[in-house]
Specification:
With 474 residues, this protein is mainly β. It is built from 5 helices and 24 strands. The longest helix has 16 residues. The two termini are 31 Å apart. 29% of the residues are buried.
């Protein structure tokens, strides 16, 4: 029991989600700011960005020096600019002040509190579908440990450089680098990644909607992959990504014996090249725990281009839509729709779609997986702000950590999902049927935007339980 509690604590401390936004205090309508019906931006001043370059911040600001805007549009642009700056994940806090030169001309002063960017973070994590799956089995072999060193603001240009050495259940060596802008107009970025992975135990199939696992004394699965992608961000809220990647997988004979389609066509190894396109329109007020705004994502991946000698020939389409509304003071509504469509049914198991993996799941079905090719998932939640966002200072902590913001939300939710399986899982009875659940949850949003969710949910079969998660529900 003690090991379980310690694991929960370490896991929650490792789940850093960046970028929380809070509203600016409302401005009284009789303020001197409203003596004239419009404002002209005379100056934009940044204070507090000791490492971050000015152009990285000004790229997110929706007004420029010399712009003339009506008051309402002016204040809306400043509030949205503040949220945009926070959503770069570079700052803990952002405050916008307005200094009037006269009734018309205004100077904008943006106060920034930078985060701690270079984080050597020890890895102590559960390698499972979700924390609840692990908790039901308490398999301490499924724990990873190691070290991840990330510079979240390399050279002060919002570049991210990350290196990982991981041992335990999954052994991994990885290196990632991304730069948001390589052109003068700050619209085109680049990303690179490389990793080498090994496992002695893998999920080779599913039966009765439970994972079937194989463990060996040697590496049962090895993977080598790398890729490069180009990011095009023409507008503040929209971005396009185009990428190419290489993957090589190999398994031992025992895995192939249990599932000859694990890599397809009774193979011990395969390699393939993939192309992908991803479009995101993100207008949420916060990326980690949004309360207002919208999110749209379209993704298409083509696995296998016929260049390598491989049996892989698959195309997947995915669409995701999220909407967040404020109903009234302290009451919010969130909803999402997500769908995945496979171009063909003949997929190697390693590329199989499904629900129950990571955050792509129906609540109250945390202990199940539903394999298939085509997926639909809908979620809705009403949230009540039980504890409004608050900030407290802890003088004994270093400056980058001594201001703690937190909030608590009480929620009622319902989920509905459907997985279409046209190939080989006749004993997985949850496929090809509508599944649904509902429940109540308590969400805690805190320091460096950690999100901890505690939920009691019940599914269509009357099965219920108390579940834990470390990301926002929608």
């Amino acid at each position: 029991m003690l090991k379980t509690v310690l694991l929960l604590v370490f896991t929650s401390l490792s789940c850093f989600l960046w970028g929380q936004a809070y509203k600016i205090d409302p401005i009284a309508k009789d303020s001197a700011l409203f003596k004239a019906p419009y404002k002209i931006v005379s100056q934009i001043q940044l204070i507090g960005n000791k490492r971050t370059k000015n152009h990285i911040v000004t790229r997110e600001i929706l007004v420029n020096v010399g712009d003339m805007l009506e008051n309402e549009a002016f204040f809306e642009a400043l509030e949205q600019s503040r949220k945009n700056i926070l959503n770069t994940s570079l700052f803990n806090f952002t405050r916008v002040d307005i200094a009037l030169i006269d009734s018309v001309h205004a100077s904008i002063i943006i106060h920034l509190t930078e985060k701690w960017y270079i984080i050597p973070l020890p890895i102590f994590e559960i390698d499972d579908n979700n924390f609840n799956t692990w908790l039901s089995e308490r398999d301490y072999n499924r724990i990873n440990y190691g070290l991840n060193v990330t510079d979240y603001n390399f050279r002060g240009r919002n570049e991210r450089l990350s290196a990982t050495v991981k041992y335990g259940f999954t052994k991994r060596l990885s290196l990632r680098y991304s730069i948001p802008y390589i052109d003068k107009n700050q619209k085109i970025g680049l990303g690179f990644n490389f990793s080498y992975n090994r496992r002695e135990q893998i999920v080779y199939n599913s039966f009765d909607n439970k994972r079937l696992q194989f463990r060996s004394d040697e590496d049962a699965w090895k993977n080598l992959n790398g890729g490069i992608n180009i990011i095009y961000r023409r507008r503040i809220f929209d971005s396009h990504s185009f990428g190419i990647s290489y993957n090589k997988n190999s398994i031992i004979d025992s895995v192939k014996f249990y599932n000859e389609n694990f890599l397809g066509e009774n193979r011990n190894s395969h390699q393939f090249i993939s192309l992908f396109y991803n479009f995101v329109s993100d207008k949420r007020d916060s990326r980690s725990y949004p309360l207002k705004g919208s999110y749209f994502n379209f993704n298409v991946v083509k696995y296998g281009l016929g260049i390598t000698k491989s049996n892989v020939d698959l195309i997947n389409f995915q669409v995701q839509v999220k909407k967040f509304l404020k109903l009234k003071e302290r009451l919010f509504l969130a909803g999402s729709l997500r769908g995945v469509v496979a171009g063909n049914n003949n997929q190697p198991y390693i590329l199989q779609n499904g629900l129950g993996y990571s955050s792509f799941a129906i609540r109250a079905y945390e202990l199940y997986v539903i394999d298939g090719q085509n997926i639909g998932l809908a979620k809705a939640q009403i949230r009540y702000q039980l504890v409004q966002p608050r900030v407290k200072e802890i003088p004994s902590l270093p400056k980058k950590f001594n201001r703690v913001h937190y909030a608590v939300y009480l929620g009622l939710f319902t989920d509905m999902g459907y997985v279409e399986d046209n190939t080989g899982f006749p004993l997985n009875t949850l496929a090809n049927k509508i599944q649904y659940s509902s429940g109540i949850g308590l969400d805690f949003v805190s320091y460096y935007d950690i999100v901890i969710r505690t939920e009691f949910s019940i599914n269509k079969f009357g099965q219920s339980g108390l579940f834990f998660h470390f990301v926002a529900p929608i």
